[in-house]
Amino acid sequence: MAVKNPYTPLPCRLKEVIEETPTIRTFVLDSKPIDFEAGQFVELTVPGVGEAPFTPSSNPNDPEKLELTIMKVGRVTSALFELKPGDLLGIRGPYGKPYPIDSWKGKEIFIVGGGVGMAPLRSLLLALLDRVRDFKRIYLRYGARTPKDIVYKRLFPEWEKVKKLDIVQTVDVGDETWKGPTGVVTVILEEIPVNFKNSVAVVCGPPIMLKFVTMRLVEAGFAPETIYLSMEKNMSCGIGKCNHCRLGPYYVCKDGPVLTWDMIKDLKEDPFL
Amino acid sequence: MRFLSRSQLEQLIRRLAETKTVYLPYRTGERINYHRYDGNVDHDALAGIRPTSSLKNFLFPPSEFVASFPKEVRKSIPEQIVIGPKQCDIYGVWVYDRIFGQGEFQDPFYLERKKQLFLISVDCPTPAESCFCNLVDLTPWVEAGSDLNLTPLDDGYLIDPVSKRGKEFLESKGLGSEPTEGQLKAREESRKRAMARLEEINRGKRLREQLPDDDEFWMEKLDGCVECFSCLFACPTCYCFLLYDVKAKKGFDRIRVWDACYYAAYARVGGGMNPRPDFLSRFKNRFHCKFEYFKQYHDRFACSGCGRCLKGCSANIDIREIVWQ
Ligand SMILES: Cc1cc2nc3c(=O)[nH]c(=O)nc-3n(C[C@H](O)[C@H](O)[C@H](O)COP(=O)(O)OP(=O)(O)OC[C@H]3O[C@@H](n4cnc5c(N)ncnc54)[C@H](O)[C@@H]3O)c2cc1C
Ligand code: SF4
Ligand code: SF4
Ligand code: FES
């Protein structure tokens, strides 16, 4: 056949599984079967079970491995959680558009994550830190349900050391170990210490969080075209054909998965459903 | 352009069928459908309206084996000739070309099927009550998109080259005779009559500037729908699909199956959130998809006016009463 078959996954193997939280694990592949840029996603196959879209969580500049941080929610993700190091997986991609990092030079970057939404943001953060001099300042605001549900606990201490990176975390419900703020992520968005004229905001998390964070960011002063939102839609093909991911006139797999607020704010459909 | 008598066309089809698989329309009762050539040509069916099933079945079949793992899938797609598609189905191919045959990723199975499919379209001298190709700016005859085109006349057919390979085919065969003035005039009149009939059938229909917003309008329109989804599966411009994996001896096979946006699970995401949880929102979405979103990308509607969705509907839901007024 003349054109490449876009439905065939490449084989790859699982190298390591890291337990992040009771329901979230990081799956480390033994190689980097495909190149990607921060924000792009892949279709991961559990052989015989099916495929699902995920955004790699590792540094796109890492030539050796690819990691995915995944929450167990249903059929494919449950099958993934059964796998062991050495098991075979399929992967195809990368799909979708990357974050336009080059266009953010000289700006302040305000990142807001919720739950497993930290996965793509970690990949973005690592890519930004690789060229941290290009940006004025980077902020990370992260919310999880409880201290147990915070992903990358092992990595935060290292990130806290980066001078240009300002991190605040919150949990909905604290426990005896928790010293930080409590409440949903918007409680740590009351103060947004950026110059809105020269900043972008990047948000990833569950739809309800996305909605309230977007409202808050708009209210605070971010222009709609500077708010980058990861839209989770049902996806099958990942390549703009099957129509599953459609949101208004967009194929989220092809035009996204990150869309700016100005692209979706006036749609007939509620983008956060 | 050449003129073929009925028996000359029959002879041509017989010759083609000696080396290739040929499909053409046959009438059974009220229904016209494609069948493998059985030695006869149903001239009445050829001059009728579009068959019950469309070219979708040839180019984008209900299920197609598209990948296997860990070994790459190999398959050969046979050459086929379909005689009889109407403008509304040729337009469906145009829509599928935008989806499967363009852009960064292309569907190799669609492209191969298309390459192997030789299309001989036929004019519609007598459009039916369910036809509305004129409302989507199409004519009931084909000038592009097929390989050859036939115009049925009283005593035979005019045959025109449409594609490059159609032209080569016609030149290599030295078929029939030079058409007469009278035959050319007969075609012009037949086409004019067909267009006039479509205008009569769809008289007074005006495209809505915008699809209405209020739920009451849509609730009224979807009344009686039994959610059989035949309107979607029969539609030559619907293209939704799902990749479905089945376990194989070693690894798995991946099948591309037709899907339908009316299914409750269609847009549901992991964990159970659903952007279109009720049938009302899914019903609306179909019209937005065809008449707004597709148009924003491709400048035309994803509807060819073939009328299959309304013919097959047990609730008599007529798309013309929704998109037009
Ligand atoms: C661009 C993108 C990036 C993402 N990144 C991440 C990430 O980094 N980490 C993460 O944890 N999550 C991520 N997600 C979410 C993740 O894709 C879902 O959690 C995942 O698809 C759930 O799959 P599941 O089969 O376990 O869930 P299920 O709830 O079982 O299935 C999800 C959906 O798949 C469909 N489906 C179910 N069964 C079948 C079947 N047999 N055949 C075909 N379809 C079926 C259904 O429509 C169902 O609603 C991302 C999503 C998108 C769109
Ligand atoms: S929507 Fe109805 S009339 Fe339009 S192409 Fe599909 S089946 Fe034909
Ligand atoms: S809709 Fe038009 S092209 Fe299709 S069968 Fe009817 S008259 Fe022919
Ligand atoms: S996932 Fe198939 S079109 Fe986007």
Automatic annotation (TrEMBL), chain A:
CDD domains: sulfite_reductase_like
Signal peptide: none
GO molecular function, one term: 2 iron, 2 sulfur cluster binding
Domain FAD-binding FR-type per the UniProt entry, residue ranges: 7-101
Cofactors required: [2Fe-2S] cluster
Pfam families: DHODB_Fe-S_bind, FAD_binding_6, NAD_binding_1
Superkingdom per UniProt: Bacteria
Cofactor annotation remark: Binds 1 [2Fe-2S] cluster per subunit.
Keyword Iron-sulfur: yes
GO-annotated biological processes: pyrimidine nucleotide biosynthetic process
Record-listed [2Fe-2S] cluster binding positions: 237, 242, 245, 253
Keywords per UniProt: 2Fe-2S, Iron, Iron-sulfur, Metal-binding
PANTHER family: ANAEROBIC SULFITE REDUCTASE SUBUNIT B (PTHR43513:SF1), DIHYDROOROTATE DEHYDROGENASE B (NAD(+)), ELECTRON TRANSFER SUBUNIT (PTHR43513)
Protein name listed in UniProt: Oxidoreductase
Automatic annotation (TrEMBL), chain B:
Signal sequence, start to end: none
Domain 4Fe-4S ferredoxin-type as annotated: residue spans: 294-322
SUPFAM superfamilies reported for this sequence: 4Fe-4S ferredoxins
Keywords: Iron, Iron-sulfur, Metal-binding
Molecular function via GO: iron-sulfur cluster binding; metal ion binding
Family annotation (PANTHER family): ANAEROBIC SULFITE REDUCTASE SUBUNIT A
Protein name: 4Fe-4S ferredoxin-type domain-containing protein
UniProt source species: candidate division WOR-3 bacterium
